[in-house]
Amino acid sequence: MKKTKNKGKILKIILVVLIVILISMISFVGIYAKRNGNYKNLITNYKLGMELEGTRTLILKPDSSSETIVKDSEGNIIENATEDEIKEKGYTQEEVPVNSEENLTEENFINSKEIIENRLKEYKFEEYSIKQDLDSGNIILELAENDNTDTVLSVINKQGKFEIKDSTTDEVLIDNSMIKQAKVLYNTTTTGTSVYLNIEFTKEGKEKLTQITTDYKTIEEANSENAEETAESAEDAEGEESEEAEQTQKEIVMEIDGEAIITTSFDEPITTGQLQLTVGSNSKDSEKLKDYIKQAQSTASVLTTGSIPVKYTADTNKYIKTSISNKDVKIAFYVALIIIALISLLLIIKYKTKGVLASILAIGFIALVLLVIRYTNVKVSSAGIIAIIAVSILNYLLEILILNNSNKKDEEKEKILNIMSRFIFTIFPIFIIAVTFSFITSTLLNSFGMILFWGIILTLVYNLIFTKPLLNK
Amino acid sequence: MKNLNKILYIICILIIIAGAIVLKFLGTNYSIENTKGKSVEIYFDYSTNKNDITAIAKETFGENIKVSEIERFNDAFAIFVKDDITDEQKNNFISKINEKYSLEKKVDDLTITDIPKMQGKDLVKSYITPSLIAMVIIFIYLCIRYFKIGNVKVAVEVILKVFLITGAYFGIVVITRLPIVNMYTVPVGILIAIITLITLCYKNEIKLKEFNKEKKK
Hints:
The complex is a heterodimer of chains A (473) and B (217). With 473 residues, chain A is of the alpha+beta class. Chain A contains 13 helices and 18 strands. Chain A has helices at residues 2-28, 50-53, 83-89, 106-122, 149-156, 203-215, 220-232, 234-246, 286-305, 326-375, 382-406, 416-438, 443-471, and strands at 32-35, 38-41, 47-48, 54-62, 66-71, 77-78, 92-97, 128-132, 139-144, 162-166, 172-175, 179-189, 192-201, 252-256, 259-264, 274-283, 312-321, 379-380. The relative contact order of chain A is 0.13. In chain A, strand 1 (32-35) and strand 2 form a beta hairpin. The two termini of chain A are 18 Å apart. The radius of gyration of chain A is 33 Å and the shape is elongated. Chain B contains six helices and four strands. A four-stranded antiparallel β-sheet of chain B has the order 2-3-1-4, with helices on one face. In chain B, helix 1 (2-26) crosses helix 5, helix 2 (50-61) runs antiparallel to helix 3 (87-101) and helix 5 packs antiparallel against helix 6. The longest helix of chain B has 32 residues, at 185-216. The two termini of chain B are 27 Å apart. At the A-B interface, strand 8, strand 17, helix 11, helix 12 and helix 13 of A face strand 2, strand 4, helix 4 and helix 6 of B.
């Protein structure tokens, strides 16, 4: 009976050790299969954070160029004047710097940097760093390279000057100061998904919008109603003609950075204080839809964050690989190896055979964590590496608690569940940190939180499945 | 043991004070990527070796540099130099590059950009809000969990000790003029805070276990 029990125990140990070795092999070496004539690792690669992979670096400099403005005899700025008009009406042309001297102040530089940073946050761009030279105003923007980088870069230095103007008089009716926030909205019907840019105005903007949408009402509606009446008598028709001559269609033009987005009138007054612009309608093509969303999101982030006080130009835009060399990676690998070997040695000295098993299990745990990271969409950043170290420490701690308990006399031994529950209460604050950091958009912190979160879950499950049956006897 | 702990915490307080004084008068010592400096970019028509470029850059600009590849073809490099660079250094660098690769490049072929200093607050600000939220939740948890053995007192003690030990780590970084590196300075601080927190919570769990045992008796 005892022999069978021993045999069963040995078999269990061999089985667990083999599983752990297998996990370690898969994680550290990989699974290779022939694909298109070459052997390829089938295990998904790590997704690395920007400091471990590389950054798209953009240098933004305050625009030092000049622009020509046209003024009339009274000094008023005339927009869109043609050469003929300038000659005929005697307008004068002046070269003025895009950024005036008074505009290039430290306060404006700081504001510009903050607005750029807010745009990145609004866009929910996970990884970036911004440096600024307060003397020159130059901004160095480092972004992670991903699907959104190009879209973000194309709008990041836009001044974001939003204006709703009268299309004929150029009178500014609404500007940035009246925008509360801009959001992207979707509407899915059987014909496809439509993407809208929803601009929400402040209280003042809401009132102004109601007034504008009343003043700039589309006349066709009134005309069509009149048309029925006018068909009845020729006299009325004459009357309608004269009414049309009086009521010319007034239109507004919506501009971002001087570029007209839309010229329109309104069917009915908008009293909600929200304006919806269609970015793309009824699309079933996922790629097109993605583009619409990106476009709407970038415009929304620009509108929500307001206008940059200094006009910036993008000086350079290049991808810079991480300065971490293969040599650095090798050094880090050997240091980790030495530390693991030393801990294993200490475990073996203190716990003998159980120490050997604990060492194998600990290596298996690290392998499993690394494997889970690859499949859980977690980006590995430097803080993520620290989280891997933290969960390894947690695992060693639990192993030691189990080993210590197994070395106790039978009457002093605690139930494994008691040890586990005490361990859970001990590390619960760490779990709080993990969950809090997991909700942060920043890759650096998200990586830390997510790895810690998965690591804690794995520590508990792994030790219940593997460590408990092996070491708690 | 209690005295030893007291001494340890007093040392931590002294280190924090010393660190604050050093920070006030000398500031922090930022690593190359975070400090004010220059980026020297050099472009080639073909792939070259990063190690060779690094060696030449170190010979010319000193050991305090970092070399990164630009794009992915090994034909362009950015050398980050911590200090200002002189015309002589630029000339030396170009002549060494020309000598190594038999080229006829000129100083004007280098793209030199001023790199501004990273603001200290920018380095830590992303950590502040989540750390504060986590701290408040942890504080509430500690109050509830260790209600029997001291309630708020235990929670305050744990948080304070974590602050002291983590603060001492940052104090040591400032005093010893260790370069502040994005990659590990703050994350290592968090690791230290985590280890301290686990140790203190484990001690409290043991106290709680003994308290419950006593109560049963």
